[in-house]
Amino acid sequence: MSDKRLWKSLEVGEFGESSVHLDIFPAIDHLESIHDTDRIHSLIRALDEFKNTDSMTHYFFAPDDDDDGNDTESSFTWGPRSQDDIDWSGFKEYVDRYL
Fold first, then answer.
1. CB-based contacts of 25, cutoff 8 Å, min separation 6
2. Is CB count within 10 Å lower at the N or C end of the chain?
3. What is the pTM of this model?
4. Which residues of the chain have pLDDT under 70?
């Protein structure tokens, strides 16, 4: 059994000026249910960057309540540490659709 998190379950936030946390985008299924194509595009773009570089410019993963390694004060400790920690099944379909 895999310990990887499915990419569709990840929530991503956006940094504003001065590294202030602006917004956390809900997981993709919720965004699709409310037809929020702007946020879907932003989420897919951020995840695609992480998949290719292990980092995201202007974005961060939302805190994972199940991860004991989370530091509540530092968003850099939240979420997967590497693209290898994510199950990317079906992601290419979304990249093709939204990017």
1. 11, 12, 13, 14, 31, 39, 42, 43
2. N
3. 0.81
4. 1-2, 16-23, 64-76
